[in-house]
Amino acid sequence: MKLGIISDVHSNVVALKKVLSGLKDVEMIIHAGDIVGYNPYPNETIQVFREKNIFSILGNHDRAVITGDTSGFNPFATDAVYWTRNVLSDENLRFLKTLKNREKIKIGNTNIAVIHGSPWDDEYVYENRLSKNFLDEVNAEVLVYGHTHVPCFKKFDKGIIINPGSVGQPRDGNPKACFCILDLDKKTVEIKRTDYDIKAVAQKIMEYKLPDILAYRLPLGE
User: Fold this and answer.
1) pTM given for the model
2) Nearest to 6 by CA among 140, 174, 192
3) Backbone angles phi, psi at 34, to 5 degrees
4) Could you tell me how far CA 1 lies from the centroid of its own chain?
5) Which residue, 36, 18, 40, 75, is CA-closest to 197?
6) H helical segments located in 88-197
7) Which of 85, 87, 142, 203 is geometrically suited to a Cys-Cys bond with 112, CB 3.0 to 4.6 A?
């Protein structure tokens, strides 16, 4: 069984649609949080999540949009949160409120935990910090997380930890939208990238008067 693993779409429906075109053969798509934030298409992005029945948890930007609490956010992220709160439809806000901070699902004999940061907090966890303790903490054979916008995966005797990078705002120096395919039967992970119309998204950011830096960083992958 193949699963699509994605994270940090951040209101970039243009990138999301390109990624979904590369996930036509998977049986389920799992998203590790931050549906909204930064980019200019929050309603359109949530609509795709609803139509495609994408399994998702909340990320820190999603929670900020729900609550209005931007503690710890930089000024650009804060501006994007407030802008998103102003334009998001009541229906789509209600959808965000149905999501949980973390989830665990079982597919066949495999327990899959989905979180945004680490098993303990919304902290940034890069590949060099990953250990089997993460799997022990969530009591699962597969752990999916995001938040860093940098893809990685690591195999241990007990299972696999996967960060699929970011669909909507990669930060590993590669501006292409990032996602993963997990083959549960073969226990393999494939990191994939796809081009999308970055210029169109950047132009819309400027048009909607979101912070300029959010447009400038997209083609840099940072």
Assistant:
1) 0.96
2) 192
3) 70, 65
4) 21
5) 18
6) 90-98, 132-138
7) 142
According to DSSP H, which parts of 25-131 are helical?
42-52, 60-67, 75-87, 90-98
The predicted model gives 118-145 an average pLDDT of 95
Instruction: Compute the distance between CA of residue 96 and CA of residue 46 in angstroms, rounded to an integer.
Output: 8
Q: Each residue of 183-215: pLDDT tens digit? A: 999 999 999 999 999 999 999 999 999 999 999
Cβ–Cβ contacts within 10 Å for residue 15, how many?
32
Grouping H, G, I as helix, E, B as strand and the rest as coil, residue 126 is coil
Task: Check residue 188 and give left, alpha or beta (phi > 0: left; psi -120 to 50: alpha).
Answer: beta
- Separate counts of helices (H) and strands (E) for the chain: 8, 10
Q: How far apart are CA 17 and CA 7, in angstroms?
A: 14
Residue 151 is encoded by which pair of tokens? 């893809």
Q: How confident is the model at residue 39 (pLDDT cuts 50, 70, 90)?
A: very high
Domains with residue ranges and CATH for the chain: 2-100+163-220 (3.60.21.10)
- Cα-Cα-Cα-Cα dihedral of 57, 79, 217, 3, to 10°? 10
The number of angstroms, rounded, from the C-alpha of 9 to the middle of its chain's C-alpha atoms is 5
Quick one: tokens of 69?
A: 């609490």
| Rg (alpha carbons) of the chain, rounded to whole number | 16
E strand segments, the chain: 2-6, 28-31, 55-56, 103-107, 110-114, 142-144, 151-155, 160-164, 177-183, 188-194
